[in-house]
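Weekly sync, protein design subgroup
Attendees: M.S., D.O., the rotation student, P.L. (late)

Item 1: inverse folding check
M.S. brought a backbone from last month's batch and wanted to see whether the design step gives back something sensible before we order anything. D.O. pointed out we never logged the input encoding, so this time it goes straight into the notes. Structure tokens as presented (120 positions):
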């Protein structure tokens, strides 16, 4: 999957799948009707589009994710850092912390991530 961006409605739809998977496609239609006020055709159109992008799979009427929510978010983050900061995580963190200082808890969490990374 090369496009790691979702619109607001696609994000809500993806969340419904991630929260309920594996989910039969018919049940997904009912869920989308209730949660998003969608018709059956809209659900299948958006599902097909996200399946084509490699995010989900609809096999034999059972919808599952090909990427977990966490993996998708990680890839979105990587794509953003690549595009906006030339792939430089330090540049991203420098820009981020200019406007929002890190709390002691955030600093400790980052230090733990760095220590884990050093250990391999």
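Designed sequence read out in the meeting:
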């Amino acid at each position: 999957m090369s496009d790691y961006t979702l619109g607001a409605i696609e994000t809500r739809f993806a969340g419904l799948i991630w929260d309920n998977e594996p989910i039969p496609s018919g049940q997904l239609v009912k869920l989308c009707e209730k949660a998003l006020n969608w018709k059956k055709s809209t659900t299948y159109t958006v599902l097909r589009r996200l399946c084509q992008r490699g995010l989900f799979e609809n096999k034999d009427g059972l919808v599952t994710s090909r990427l977990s929510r966490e993996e998708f978010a990680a890839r979105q983050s990587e794509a953003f850092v690549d595009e906006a900061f030339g792939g430089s995580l330090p540049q991203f963190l420098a820009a981020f912390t200019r406007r929002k200082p890190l709390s002691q808890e955030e600093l400790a969490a980052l230090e733990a991530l760095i220590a884990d990374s050093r250990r391999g």
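Discussion: The beta strands are 23-24, 56-59, 62-65. The first strand starts at residue 23 and ends at 24.
Action: P.L. to compare against the previous round before Friday.
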